[in-house]
């Protein structure tokens, strides 16, 4: 008798949807997910693929969500766009809009995004993020980021560990890293002033942007 599949993977226009069985024990679901990724590894390599995880009627605690994310992050080209539960209803937000993605941008990979991006993960040397809005990297930024790709010179680039190979905002390209005056990799942000790329501490971000308040009090 064939065992019941606890994880169903469906392809959609802009990525993959992982449907997790909401009646079985969560540890069994994670085991099935891990096995599927291992047995179909040839499909999870190469260009970046967006992933939406649907939990059905199941609610998960932070520890369970972390375990789920860690399994998916083992596949270098999977970026988690959302983890959805039927019981959750997300109100329509107004004002500053930002989308969260989780994963790792490895060497040779390009992540392109429309709007403001909060990226939970690392950008490795040789990796590239391009976004039409702001880019906030909660992790190590050692690759390249291009914010405001459609010409928005007011966009900013923020990173928890700020050691990029190159930065670009609109059409302004950063100076070489050794000219930034940053003595050690730390939490910084980049912005454009009078046509020049500037680097400053995240604590000073509020001086130029009142709407980007996720680091308020840092």
UniProtKB/TrEMBL annotation:
<keyword id="KW-0131">Cell cycle</keyword>
<keyword id="KW-0132">Cell division</keyword>
<comment type="function">
    <text>Cell division inhibitor that blocks the formation of polar Z ring septums. Rapidly oscillates between the poles of the cell to destabilize FtsZ filaments that have formed before they mature into polar Z rings. Prevents FtsZ polymerization.</text>
</comment>
<comment type="subunit">
    <text>Interacts with MinD and FtsZ.</text>
</comment>
<dbReference type="InterPro" id="IPR036145">
    <property type="entry name" value="MinC_C_sf"/>
</dbReference>
<dbReference type="InterPro" id="IPR016098">
    <property type="entry name" value="CAP/MinC_C"/>
</dbReference>
<dbReference type="Pfam" id="PF22642">
    <property type="entry name" value="MinC_N_1"/>
</dbReference>
<dbReference type="GO" id="GO:1901891">
    <property type="term" value="P:regulation of cell septum assembly"/>
</dbReference>
<dbReference type="InterPro" id="IPR005526">
    <property type="entry name" value="Septum_form_inhib_MinC_C"/>
</dbReference>
<dbReference type="InterPro" id="IPR013033">
    <property type="entry name" value="MinC"/>
</dbReference>
<feature type="domain" description="Septum site-determining protein MinC N-terminal">
    <location>
        <begin position="7"/>
        <end position="83"/>
    </location>
</feature>
<protein>
    <recommendedName>
        <fullName>Probable septum site-determining protein MinC</fullName>
    </recommendedName>
</protein>
<keyword id="KW-0717">Septation</keyword>
<dbReference type="Pfam" id="PF03775">
    <property type="entry name" value="MinC_C"/>
</dbReference>
<dbReference type="GO" id="GO:0000917">
    <property type="term" value="P:division septum assembly"/>
</dbReference>
<feature type="domain" description="Septum formation inhibitor MinC C-terminal">
    <location>
        <begin position="102"/>
        <end position="199"/>
    </location>
</feature>
<dbReference type="GO" id="GO:0000902">
    <property type="term" value="P:cell morphogenesis"/>
</dbReference>
<dbReference type="InterPro" id="IPR055219">
    <property type="entry name" value="MinC_N_1"/>
</dbReference>
<comment type="similarity">
    <text>Belongs to the MinC family.</text>
</comment>
């Amino acid at each position: 008798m064939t065992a019941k599949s606890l994880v169903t993977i469906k392809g959609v226009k802009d990525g993959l949807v992982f449907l997790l069985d909401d009646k079985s024990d969560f540890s069994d679901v994670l085991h099935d997910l891990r096995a599927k990724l291992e047995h179909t590894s040839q499909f999870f390599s190469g260009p970046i693929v967006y992933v939406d995880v649907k939990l059905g009627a199941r609610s998960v605690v932070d520890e369970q969500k972390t375990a789920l994310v860690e399994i998916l992050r083992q596949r270098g080209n999977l970026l988690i766009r959302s983890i959805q539960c039927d019981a959750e209803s997300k109100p329509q937000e107004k004002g500053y809009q930002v989308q969260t993605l989780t994963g790792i941008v490895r060497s040779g990979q390009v992540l392109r995004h429309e709007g403001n991006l909060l990226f939970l993960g690392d950008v490795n040397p040789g990796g590239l993020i391009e976004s039409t809005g702001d880019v906030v990297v909660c992790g190590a930024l050692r690759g390249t980021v291009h914010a405001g790709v459609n010409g928005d010179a007011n966009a900013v680039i923020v990173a928890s560990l700020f050691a990029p190979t190159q930065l670009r905002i609109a059409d302004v390209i950063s100076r070489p890293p050794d000219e930034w005056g940053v003595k050690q990799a730390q939490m910084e942000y980049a912005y454009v002033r009078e046509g020049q790329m500037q680097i400053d501490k995240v604590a000073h971000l509020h001086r130029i942007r009142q709407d980007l308040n996720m680091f308020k009090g840092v």
